[in-house]
Design goal:
This protein is an all-alpha fold. About 90% of the residues lie in helices and about 0% in strands. The protein contains 5 helices and no strands. The radius of gyration is 18 Å and the shape is globular.
């Protein structure tokens, strides 16, 4: 086999491992939310954290797939959504397939991004990581801007 085939197989394995690890983490956070429920949410004193939890609860009721996918790319958002999903009784049979798809997309995105910047800036690994983080943030901001714009347009209709 040539090097590109071996690299593609290695990246595929990385994608599967990353997706499975993310799913396990998300499911454990969901289970923690289910187990601790409302008392956990009631203990939070920070207004900012409370607002994230409230946003997650309302958003899960309205657009679960969108919220779970978007939250996968936001470090604290991911934790908040998974905890709230568990704490509010969101059905795990509904949650798991959405989480699996979001984790798979996230893993492919991250492995591809890492491979691209690693190939481009291979002699400068710290720079490759820095650039990939900036690109990931920019993509997240773009997705959020598109979402906000779509909500504004829907609000006018």
């Amino acid at each position: 086999a040539d090097g590109s085939h071996a690299q593609a197989c290695g990246n595929g394995t990385r994608c599967v491992v990353a997706a499975l690890a993310a799913m396990v983490g998300d499911s454990l956070t969901f289970a923690l939310g289910r187990r601790l429920g409302s008392p956990l949410l009631a203990r939070v004193r920070s207004p900012r954290v409370q607002s994230v939890f409230e946003w997650a609860r309302i958003a899960l009721e309205r657009r679960a797939a969108l919220v779970i996918f978007i939250a996968r790319y936001i470090p604290f958002g991911r934790v908040a959504v998974n905890l709230v999903a568990g704490a509010t009784g969101f059905a795990y049979r509904r949650y798991l397939p959405l989480s699996a798809l979001a984790c798979a997309a996230w893993a492919v995105y991250n492995v591809a991004l890492g491979a691209a910047f690693g190939a481009w800036l291979g002699d400068y690994p710290v720079l490759a990581v820095a650039v990939s983080i900036v690109v990931a943030i920019a993509v997240g901001m773009l997705i959020d801007a598109i979402r906000v714009r779509r909500e504004r347009i829907r609000g006018r209709e």
